[in-house]
Task: inverse folding
C-alpha cells in the first residue's frame, strides 16, 4: 500500500484517505449512529430532568443544543485514530511521503463530515422541540456549521495524544473540553445575539477566525502527537 | 559568553547538587518574605475605606493568581525548549511545576471565593476572570492526568509538552472570549506600565508577597525536581552510591 501511495500525487493520497475513512465509517454504521442517538437522548433528559416549561426551555435551548453537540462529538473522537493505530495503518500514514499535516486535516474533516454534519442536520428538530423561534434556526445552523469543525480539529489533538491508551475516552474529554470553551461561548453567544436582535456579523467573524486558526494550527499539534504515539 | 552552565543543565547529577545548594536560599528568603508580607499586609496595612478588612485577602489572592498564570507560562517555555533541544530538565520542570501550579490556581480560586462572599455577597459568580482561572485549573489537571495515564517516559515528555503548548495558544483566546462573555471582576491590581491606584502602604506588602510566593515556588519546585531526578536516575551509579551512603550514615 505504501508503494502505491507514494506513486500517487498529493490529491490522490488525500482522496484515498477520504474514501477510506468514509468507507470504514459506513462499514461500521453503529459508530455513525451513536453520536446522533446520544445527542437525542441527552437533549430529552433536560425537559425530563429540569422542567418541560417553555419558560425554562426557550432561554436554555441554544446552550443545550451546543453543549450536547459538543459532548456527542467528544464521544466519537475516541475512534478518530484508534482503529488505524490498532491495525498499523497509522504508521503507514506517518511514514507517507505526503505531508502528514494535510492527511490529518482530511481525516479530521472527514470525521466532522460523518459526525458533526449529521448532528447539524438533526439539530433543527430538537431546536423546535425546545421552542426556539424558527426565524433563529438559520443562525443556529450557521454557528454549528462553523463551530463543529473546530471541535473536531481541537479534538483531534486530544485523540492523537491518547491514541496509545486502551481507554482514552474520558481523558480525551478532560484534555479537550477546556480548549473548546471559546467556540462554545461564541457559538451560543451568536445565536443569543440574534435572538436579542443584535447584529451577528462580528460574532460570526470571530468564529470564522477560530475556524481558520484551528485549521492552520491544530493539525500540526495532532501530527506531532501522532508521530510521538507511533514512534513508541 | 560562557555557556558551560547551559550544557551542565543536561547533567542530572550536577542539577541535583545545584538544587541542594539553592533550595535553602529560596525557601529561607521565600518564607521570610511571605512572613513579612503577610504580617505587614494583614496587621499594619491600612483598612480599605470601602471594603474594610476583607480586602486583606488580596495579600494571598493576588500573589497566588499571578503565580498560577506565570507558572503555566514557564511550563510552556520549558515545553518549547524541551521539544527543540530535548533537554531532560525541561520535562522534570513540567512534572514538578504542574501540581504546584494547580495548587496555586486552586488557592487563588478559593481565596477569591472567600473574598467574594462579603464583597459581592456570593461565593461564586460566573465572571470572566474567575471562569478563566477555573479553566486554567482544568488545563493543569489535564496535563497532570495525561502524565499519569501514559506509561512510556519518552511519550510522557512529548505528550505533555504538546498539550502544554496547545493550552498556551488557547489561553489568550479563552481569556478574551470569557471576557466578552461576562465581566464583573475588577481590572488587574498590578500592571507593569502604571502606578498602582492604591497607597504605597498597601501595595508594598503585596509586592513583597508576590516576591515571596515566587521564591517559595522556586524552592518547592526545586525540591520536587530533586525527587524527580532521583526516581529517574535510580539506576545510575551516582544515585545508588548516594542511597548507600545515606543508609550507612543512618546506621552510624
Result:
Amino acid at each position: 500500500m505504501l508503494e502505491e501511495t507514494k506513486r500517487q500525487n498529493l490529491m490522490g493520497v488525500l482522496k484515498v484517505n477520504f474514501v477510506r475513512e468514509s468507507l470504514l465509517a459506513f462499514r461500521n454504521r453503529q459508530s455513525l449512529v451513536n453520536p446522533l442517538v446520544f445527542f437525542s437522548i441527552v437533549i430529552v433528559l433536560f425537559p425530563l430532568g429540569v422542567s418541560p416549561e417553555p419558560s425554562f426551555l426557550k432561554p436554555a435551548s441554544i446552550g443545550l443544543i451546543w453543549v450536547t453537540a459538543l459532548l456527542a462529538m467528544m464521544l466519537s473522537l475516541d475512534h478518530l485514530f484508534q482503529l488505524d493505530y490498532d491495525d498499523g495503518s497509522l504508521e503507514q500514514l506517518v511514514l507517507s511521503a505526503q505531508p502528514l499535516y494535510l492527511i490529518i486535516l482530511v481525516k479530521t474533516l472527514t470525521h466532522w463530515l460523518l459526525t458533526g454534519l449529521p448532528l447539524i442536520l438533526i439539530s433543527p428538530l430538537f431546536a423546535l422541540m425546545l421552542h426556539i423561534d424558527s426565524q433563529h434556526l438559520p443562525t443556529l445552523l450557521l454557528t454549528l456549521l462553523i463551530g463543529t469543525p473546530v471541535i473536531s480539529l481541537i479534538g483531534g489533538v486530544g485523540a492523537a495524544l491518547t491514541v496509545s491508551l486502551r481507554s482514552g475516552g474520558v481523558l480525551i474529554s478532560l484534555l479537550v473540553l477546556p480548549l473548546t470553551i471559546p467556540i462554545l461561548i461564541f457559538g451560543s453567544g451568536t445565536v443569543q445575539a440574534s435572538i436579542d436582535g443584535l447584529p451577528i456579523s462580528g460574532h460570526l467573524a470571530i468564529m470564522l477566525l477560530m475556524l481558520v486558526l484551528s485549521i492552520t494550527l491544530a493539525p500540526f499539534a495532532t501530527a506531532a502527537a501522532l508521530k510521538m504515539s507511533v514512534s513508541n | 559568553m560562557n555557556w558551560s552552565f547551559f550544557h551542565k543543565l543536561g547533567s542530572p547529577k550536577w542539577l541535583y547538587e545545584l538544587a541542594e545548594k539553592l533550595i535553602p536560599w529560596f525557601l529561607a528568603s521565600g518564607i521570610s518574605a511571605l512572613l513579612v508580607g503577610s504580617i505587614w499586609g494583614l496587621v499594619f496595612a491600612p483598612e480599605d475605606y470601602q471594603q474594610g478588612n476583607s480586602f486583606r485577602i488580596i495579600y494571598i489572592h493576588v500573589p497566588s493568581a499571578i503565580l498560577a498564570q506565570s507558572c503555566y507560562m514557564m511550563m510552556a517555555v520549558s515545553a518549547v525548549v524541551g521539544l527543540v533541544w530535548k533537554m531532560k530538565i525541561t520535562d522534570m520542570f513540567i512534572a514538578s511545576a504542574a501540581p504546584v501550579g494547580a495548587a496555586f490556581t486552586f488557592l487563588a480560586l478559593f481565596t477569591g471565593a472567600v473574598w467574594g462572599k462579603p464583597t459581592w455577597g456570593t461565593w461564586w459568580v460566573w465572571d470572566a476572570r474567575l471562569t478563566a482561572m477555573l479553566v486554567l485549573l482544568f488545563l493543569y489537571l489535564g496535563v497532570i492526568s495525561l502524565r499519569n495515564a501514559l506509561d512510556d517516559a519518552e511519550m510522557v515528555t512529548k505528550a505533555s509538552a504538546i498539550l502544554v503548548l496547545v493550552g498556551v495558544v488557547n489561553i489568550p483566546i479563552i481569556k478574551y472570549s470569557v471576557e466578552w462573555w461576562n465581566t464583573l471582576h475588577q481590572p488587574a491590581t498590578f500592571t507593569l506600565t502604571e502606578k498602582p491606584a492604591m497607597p504605597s502602604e498597601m501595595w508594598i506588602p503585596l509586592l513583597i508577597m508576590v516576591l515571596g510566593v515566587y521564591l517559595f515556588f522556586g524552592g518547592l519546585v526545586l525540591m520536587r525536581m530533586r525527587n524527580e531526578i532521583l526516581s529517574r536516575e535510580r539506576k545510575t551509579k551516582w544515585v545508588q552510591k548516594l542511597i548507600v551512603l545515606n543508609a550507612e550514615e543512618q546506621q552510624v
